[in-house]
Specification:
The protein is α/β, with parallel strands linked by helices. The protein is built from 14 helices and 27 strands.
Length: about 500
């Protein structure tokens, strides 16, 4: 029997006076965060929430996300993590599909999510109760849930295989699916990460700017930091200049983010050269995940700040970390590392047979990280989990030493005139152009070749680059079937909540 809430409870018991969370100038100790989580648990219990019930949490990066998340777990209920970027109809779908009986949401006037969550709550009859943090008029307040006298709570004892969290996938086709992650899924993922990121002495800090409602920030940042009793500096919205200055103020020595965050930090013109110099002296490492880290960006970060930089791989369905760098040794540029402890990786062809080292195929994952399945969708579960192997849909290759390289999504593969074109490879080569800041490559219908390669790019400040210039440059740098014949300039590329480029919005 194991409750994931033990992660916070253990940290609070061992280091009660250590700072747990820093947010907008305020600071909370582990004892205070544990007490507030207990207050949430008591309030939920009084409201009739019991083991196995589903409670939706719709909240940006704030201390309340942490206390409510663990408070829900403490009563043995399931946390349904809902993106704070959704609109009312999208939230209503997830409330209804997840069978949420209650909801805790952020209602502050600095974001519209409160209005959307309140509207969604009114559309789902089975969701009986809702409480709002920083409520607006007409919203039931968070103070109606918690009481100052409720500082103690004995957490429910649940099976490690019981569902702890339901996280909805992005739903690139059809409706989003709710991935069920168990208590064991998450804590074993954290323990696998902690093997290479051991506990630190007092003073260890981490900054979380990735959204906590996403699996990467939740497991690889929040849970890992709490497991190691580190101080979490929370950022509600990522803005490069603010993050840089906060890192300087709090002496943050490393950062976990997505590639677009690092691009923004490198390109930030709002901070002074003096600030950048101090940051470079302070930093020790960067780590990335959530999207493909192109070798060119990795190299630029490492050279700019004279630090190591690693990339990992995972998915919501794998809790998420299934592959990352296991040692502090040399890191091959572009690699996402090797299989995590207790995890097996396999690359197969279309017939399901394992391919030789160096060849491209679909990546399969097996081990403690693989989800229980998609909530109320056994057919979709059976499609992606076969014989214990999770079929990622990602194309990858592995070298002779087990280093994994992600090539792209199987569904994003471009077939031009019978030749395979991997968008990630073309994007990486485009970023070698000195005037190009970001690139996204997609396939578009073509009457002659079936598909044509199209690039969407953003340029660096002051650039006068034209589409013909990009095509001409690419023709000289890439094979004839790879280089983009079509180029479209954008001021920005559409990004998802974790900074991944949403290519479906470019087609």
């Amino acid at each position: 029997m194991f409750n994931l809430a033990s992660n916070l409870e253990s940290a609070a018991a061992s280091y009660p006076e250590r700072e747990a969370i820093v947010f907008e100038g305020r600071r909370w100790t582990y004892a205070e965060i544990e007490e507030q989580a207990n207050q949430v648990a008591n309030g939920l219990y009084r409201a009739g929430i019991r083991e196995g019930d589903h409670v939706a949490l719709v909240c940006p990066n704030r201390p309340e996300f942490v206390t409510c998340y663990f408070g829900i777990l403490k009563v043995g209920a399931v946390v349904v993590c809902v993106s704070a970027l959704l609109k009312a109809r999208e939230i209503a779908y997830q409330l209804d599909h997840s069978d949420a009986v209650a909801m805790i949401a952020y209602g502050g006037e600095d974001m519209t999510i409160g209005d959307h969550a309140h509207e969604a709550f009114g559309q789902v009859d089975a969701c009986l109760k809702a409480w709002f943090i920083a409520p607006r008029t007409g919203m039931a307040g968070y103070d109606e849930l918690i009481g100052p006298e409720d500082g103690d709570f004995e957490s429910a004892s649940v099976s490690g295989e019981a569902t702890a969290v339901i996280l909805y996938t992005s739903g690139t086709t059809g409706f989003p699916r709710g991935a069920e992650l168990s208590h064991a899924n998450i804590i074993m993922n954290v323990m696998a990460l902690a093997r290479i990121k051991p506990p630190v002495e007092e003073g260890g800090k981490t900054l979380i700017a990735l959204p906590l409602f996403h699996v990467m920030a939740q497991t690889c940042a929040m849970h890992l930091a709490i497991y190691n009793a580190m101080t979490i500096v929370l950022v509600q919205r990522f803005r490069a200049a603010e993050v840089i200055r906060l890192m300087l103020k709090e002496t943050i020595t490393g950062l976990h983010g997505v590639p677009t965050m690092y691009r923004a930090i490198l390109d930030c013109e709002e901070v002074t050269q003096a600030e950048k110099t101090v940051l470079a002296e302070q930093l020790e490492s960067f780590s990335a995940g959530g999207a493909s880290l192109l070798p060119e960006l990795q190299k630029e970060c490492m050279e700019t700040y004279s630090i190591s930089m690693s990339n990992g791989y995972g998915a919501t369905e794998t809790s998420p970390a299934s592959c990352f760098h296991q040692t502090s040794g040399a890191i091959p540029l572009g690699s996402v590392g090797t299989a995590a402890w207790g995890v097996r990786l396999k690359i197969v062809d279309g017939a399901g047979d394992k391919v030789p080292a160096g060849e491209v195929g679909e990546l399969l994952v097996r081990g403690h990280c693989v989800m229980k399945g998609y909530y109320k969708d056994p057919q979709a579960t059976a499609e992606v989990i076969r014989d214990g192997w999770y079929h990622t849909g990602d194309l990858a290759r592995m070298d002779g030493k087990g280093h994994l390289f992600i090539v792209g999504r199987r569904k994003e593969l471009i077939i031009r005139g019978g030749f395979n074109v991997y968008p990630a490879e073309v994007e990486g080569m485009l970023l070698e152009h000195p005037a190009i800041s970001q690139a996204a490559v997609v396939g578009v219908p073509d009457p002659v070749y079936g598909e044509e390669v199209k690039a969407f790019v953003t340029t660096r400040a002051g650039s006068s680059l034209k589409a013909a210039d990009v095509v001409s440059w690419a023709r000289n740098e890439m094979a004839a079937h790879k280089y983009p014949r079509l180029v479209e300039f954008r001021e920005t590329l559409p990004l998802g909540p974790t900074g991944k480029v949403l290519k479906r919005m470019l087609k």
